[in-house]
Design brief:
Structural class: alpha+beta
Number of helices: 3
Helix content: 25-40%
CATH topology: outer membrane lipoprotein receptor (LolB), chain A
Order of helices and strands: HHEEEHEEEEEEEE
Low-confidence stretches: 1-21
Largest sheet: 11 strands, antiparallel
Strand content: 35-45%
Mean pLDDT: 85
CATH class: Mainly Beta
Shape: globular
Radius of gyration: 19 Å
Length: 246
């Protein structure tokens, strides 16, 4: 069976209907020069997120973290490369491949980020951080389809319904064809560490094996201990295993 056929089956009837309806509505709106319906767009976003989380059984990815201080984004003060292993049944686990720079910053900043990611991806926790209407108030922004990261996108204003380090108030851009996530920008509703303030966050996504996966992230925060701190994350070498088709 081809990947495209397997992927369609994994979307499920509800998600497929939502996506087809969304595409039809978007095409009608484009012809009429009107704004797409916000409810239909949000339904497509929910369907894309659900398909991703139901379709992926496990994956591995190499993540490279760099930390910069104050206004110097040329020389990092700490770096770490980890191999992330995600399993739907157990969550995330990290294997450190390399590290350099300040041990204090690696522990207090990068260690806090990894611990938070591990906690929120535990079974029973991860649903609470999904970019869906269950966790966010969403409203389609005016302006219609716009070009972003070489993709046709729609922008939504998002406000978290609860606070968490990875819950962001700001703007979510989704692919105009299927509602999959392209980029998110805003302010984290909660700091991941007592040593840093809430961060200004940007995260980019790309289509990997039919699903939206993070490729680059940047967070800027301020604290009494470290001053202005910038953390960048680059993701590469995804290896994704899909769940068997039902």
């Amino acid at each position: 069976m081809s990947f495209s056929m397997m992927h369609c089956r994994r979307l499920g009837a509800a998600a497929t209907v939502a996506t087809v309806s969304f595409l039809a509505l978007l095409g009608t709106a484009a012809v009429a020069g009107q704004q797409p319906d916000s409810t239909a767009v949000i339904r497509a976003v929910d369907g894309a997120v659900k398909a991703r989380n139901e379709g992926i059984a496990n994956y591995t990815v190499t993540e490279h973290y760099s930390v910069y201080r104050n206004n110097d984004e040329t020389h990092s003060v700490a770096e770490m490369t980890v191999k992330t292993e995600y399993r739907q049944e157990t969550g995330k686990n990290y294997i450190t491949l390399s590290q350099s720079g300040s041990a204090i910053i690696r522990s207090m900043v990068l260690g806090a980020i990894l611990d938070t990611e591990k906690r929120i991806n535990l079974p029973g926790n991860r649903e609470g951080s999904w970019l869906t209407s269950a966790n966010y108030q969403m409203q389609l922004k005016p302006g219609g389809v716009q070009r972003l990261d070489e993709r046709e996108c729609l922008a939504l204003a998002i406000i978290p319904k609860h606070k968490a380090p990875n819950m962001i108030e700001g703007t979510l851009w989704v692919d105009a064809k299927d509602g999959s996530i392209v980029r998110i920008e805003g302010i984290a509703s909660q700091s991941p560490s007592v040593f840093t303030g809430p961060a200004q966050v940007m995260r980019q996504y790309a289509n990997v094996n039919g699903f939206a996966m993070a490729t680059h992230a940047r967070a800027v925060s301020n604290s009494f201990m470290f001053g202005r701190t910038i953390v960048t994350i680059d993701y590469r070498d995804y290896q994704i295993q899909l769940r068997p088709a039902k």
